[in-house]
Design brief:
Length: about 475
């Protein structure tokens, strides 16, 4: 496969596509904000999970050594409230454990690889406390009655990620009555514990970290002071990512937190903004009962990651039928591979090789252009057409069928929309029985014993096996 030499990423901080240059040649340090584990993940969480899964898999597929870090927020107000609601034995760590286990089950259904590191806030308290301590020392932070706040007017450039200036941000903000800030735009780094709440000891009092500081501290611990790519949903750009930038750059003497910022667009349900109050949040675990991993990923990747995405029954039906077409082509290729017994045809081989090379080059060009998955999916279909055309030949070559399979596999490794069909092994007694029945049916048809041929078809149907008669003979598929 041709490996591309340059990849362009839309850098939200610069608001343009830029040539990707990693800090260290051949290596990518990537951090994406993960979920707060107080509930099951919903369809909105699924989008960044899939989008950045594809990005990191693609970078690996072209030879980068990627370290991919996605955190768990396992202590915050929502977890505290959830533990209170559940009552009894439920504590914040127990709530977190429950939903972290569920998270792993859910991402497996999304075909999302576990990240290289999944750091948890509660396991990084020393890093966080040291980070906050460093900011206090440099006077970028101040303590007020056990809370610690970041002093936004001391950090030149607060607002640069989300393209806002401090003055207009200050106009738009107000200090809540229970806050102890110097300035409306200051944000909390550490919260003093209220009676009965989970807490950690620090030199400035007992409490727990604010949300933003955890990512700065964990990215530093696992990836260093400056990372290559920082990702997350567009809704996190302000204030969460803006605050991460301020904290990290303030502590690290202006060194950038991330060289490239990637933000995925929001998701709508039937053209309405998803929100719990509208009751249209869909849990991944419920959704995945009615759709395959490949079909759901197809739906997600059918829009560019920066565009809004609309979830609707129609879109899912379309995705299902598209992946079915791809799967059929793969099943056909697989079937021919198992029954290949012929010489190829020079012209067909040459045409196939040329198509495969063109499709592969086109795919890389598209993925290298800011991970253009909607158009990359059209490459999958071009491969389907090339494969189907080739499979119409009576004579096929094993090497050519393997080329088709390899490209499908390469697409699947990144996009996850065209898994290899299950290979039926004739060592399996059930498969051996099916094959035998199929042979008997062929013989019955040859001797015009239509009654027996029909009987076998029915017998196989009861086993959920469908027979398809093709130009190259009969083949079977599981329904
Ligand atoms: Zn974050």
């Amino acid at each position: 496969m041709t490996t591309p030499s340059s990849i362009y990423i839309y850098n939200s901080q610069e608001r343009c596509k830029q040539l990707f240059k990693p800090i260290q040649d051949g290596k990518v340090r990537m951090y994406v904000c993960g979920p707060t584990v107080y509930d099951y993940i919903h369809i909105g969480n699924a989008r960044p999970l899939i989008v950045f899964d594809v990005a990191q898999k693609y970078l690996r597929s072209i030879g980068y050594d990627v370290k991919y870090v996605v955190n768990f927020t396992d202590v915050d107000d929502k977890l505290i409230r959830k533990a209170e609601q559940l009552g009894g034995e439920w504590t914040v760590p127990k709530v977190a454990e429950r939903y972290i286990t569920a998270f792993y089950e859910d991402i497996a259904k999304l075909g999302v690889a576990p990240a290289d590191v999944r750091p948890r806030v509660t396991e990084h308290m020393t890093n966080i406390v040291n980070f906050v301590g460093g900011l206090i020392e440099k006077e970028f932070a101040y303590v007020k009655e056990g809370d610690v706040y970041f002093r936004t007017d001391r950090f030149v450039g607060y607002g640069k990620l989300s393209n806002q200036d401090l003055e207009s941000l200050q106009h738009g903000s107000r200090i809540d009555v229970n806050e102890r800030k110097e300035n409306a735009t200051d944000f909390v780094l550490w919260k003093a514990a209220k009676p009965g709440e989970i807490f950690w000891n620090t030199p400035w009092g007992d409490g727990r970290p604010g949300w933003h500081i955890e990512c700065s501290a964990m990215a530093k611990e696992h990836l260093g002071e400056t990372i290559d790519i920082h990702g997350g949903g567009h809704d996190l750009m302000f204030p969460h990512h803006e605050c991460e930038v301020a904290q990290s750059e303030a502590l690290h003497d202006g060194k950038p937190l991330a060289n490239y910022w990637m933000h995925n667009g929001y998701i709508q349900i039937n053209q309405e903004k998803m929100s719990k109050s509208l009751g249209n949040g869909v849990f991944v675990r419920d959704l995945m009962q009615n759709i395959t991993t490949a079909a759901f990923r197809y739906f997600m990747l059918g829009s560019h990651y920066r565009s809004p995405l609309n979830f609707s029954d129609d879109a899912i039906v379309q995705a299902k039928s598209s992946v079915e077409r791809i799967a059929n082509s793969r099943i056909n290729a697989q079937h021919r591979l198992q029954h290949v017994a012929s010489l190829g045809n020079d012209q067909a081989e040459a045409a196939l090789s040329e198509s495969i090379e063109q499709i592969s080059n086109e795919y890389h060009a598209l993925m290298c252009d800011d991970f253009n998955t909607p158009d990359a999916l059209t490459c999958v279909f071009r491969l389907v057409s090339a494969a189907n055309l080739y499979l119409e030949q009576v004579d096929v070559l094993e090497a050519s069928l393997k080329k088709i399979n390899d490209l499908f596999d390469a697409f699947n490794e990144v996009l996850g929309v065209c898994p290899a069909p299950e290979v039926a092994s004739s060592a399996d007694p059930e498969v051996a029985r099916i094959e035998l029945l199929l042979e008997e049916r062929q013989e019955a048809r040859r001797t015009k014993n239509w009654a027996r041929a029909d009987e076998i078809r029915k017998e196989l149907a009861e086993l959920n096996i469908m027979i398809e008669d093709t130009a190259q003979g009969a083949r079977w598929v599981r329904k």
